Amino acid sequence: MGKGGMSHGSAGEAKDGEEENMAAWLLGINNLKIQPFKLPPLGPHDVKIRVKAVGICGSDVHYLKTLRCADFIVKEPMVIGHECAGIIEEVGSEVKKLVPGDRVALEPGISCWRCNLCKEGRYNLCPDMKFFATPPIHGSLANQVVHPADLCFKLPDNVSLEEGAMCEPLSVGVHACRRANIGPETNVLVMGAGPIGLVTMLAARAFGAPRIVIVDVDDHRLSVAKELGADEIVKVSPNIQDVAEEVSQIHKGMEAGVDVSFDCAGFNKTMSTALSATRAGGKVCLVGMGHSEMTVPLTPAAAREVDVVGIFRYKNTWPLCLEFISSGKIDMKPLITHRFGFSQKEVEEAFETSAGGGNAIKVMFNL
Fold first, then answer.
1. Planar angle of CA 154, 157, 162, nearest 5 degrees
2. Overall average pLDDT of the 127-153 stretch
3. What is the rounded distance in angstroms from the CA atom of residue 274 to the CA atom of residue 279?
4. pLDDT tens digits for 69-113?
5. For the chain, which end, N or C, has fewer CB atoms within 10 Å of the first or last residue's CB respectively?
């Protein structure tokens, strides 16, 4: 809903001559319905956006299948979706830098700007964050949304609305690379070739990483990673007893020490591999959160002074994402593998496609 709107029910009467706003509501497990969605009033610093592109994230699928993602639990009907871009339709009285007709990418989280974390610049950790489609806040898979103007970023002429929506997942990779200080002298290992693993790989290359090895259990995802520029791919198993042998394969593929490992899956096996593969004095960045708790070999890693850092969402990433995309340093278009319209049938098919895995990387709605 933007503006931090809570879930208070679905329907709102459209004014005479005004189109009724519709959205995809999560009503229960495997139960999505397109229903009316009443927008909040347009505040002086807000804009109203005609949503044109929305990607499906793994968290959206988690909510659909289980009504929860990590510690966030859906307790009442909620509009889903948070990876989005659209066209400005109306601006608040104090908005100076955007006008109707501007194409924008939306950063989906509204922080309080009052807590110590916000004041330190780490607003992504704000305890009062209101984030699209994180209960009880409504999301953006809707015809229209209202959102703060300062969280809407104008797209360069050569960046499409779909690419604008892809700034959200790319932001995860960019934030991870910043946390890990990736640069031209950093050899990178990426654990997992799913959507977040792939955007982290692309971001690491844009930050200057000279050599990148990526691992996964799936041949198709590895082939995609290779096509997108991975220097070496390593197929691994889900079995924890194979870690030592697979670390040897990773080192052979890297042809040097692993300076930074990104665990983009977040399982016991992937984190154990990342910790074991990273050189003494290197860094492991935990990006994925497959397990809420893990048992991993921290003591040997600590003895080699391997630093472990985590990430949560992102901060101040949209301008850099747009620069990477508009300059051609990162091409997000190959990641969009499936497209759907905004009808009841297509919404259901799109989520089935995303949840089914297979050759789907990013499933995108065109509204």
1. 70
2. 97
3. 10
4. 888 999 999 999 999 999 999 999 999 999 999 999 999 999 999
5. C
Name, of 8-22, 177-191, 347-361, the range with top average pLDDT.
Answer: 177-191
Residues spanned by CATH 3.40.50.720 within the chain?
Answer: 173-310
- Six-digit token string for 81: 């979706």
Top CATH class, 173-310:
alpha beta
- Positions of CATH 3.90.180.10 in the chain: 22-154+332-366
Query: Which CATH code, of 3.90.180.10, 3.30.365.10, 1.10.10.10, 3.40.50.300, is assigned to 22-154+332-366?
Result: 3.90.180.10
Q: What is the pLDDT of residues 208-252, one digit of tens each?
A: 999 999 999 999 999 999 999 999 999 999 999 999 999 999 999
The two tokens of residue 213 are 């090895």
Name the pTM for this structure: 0.93
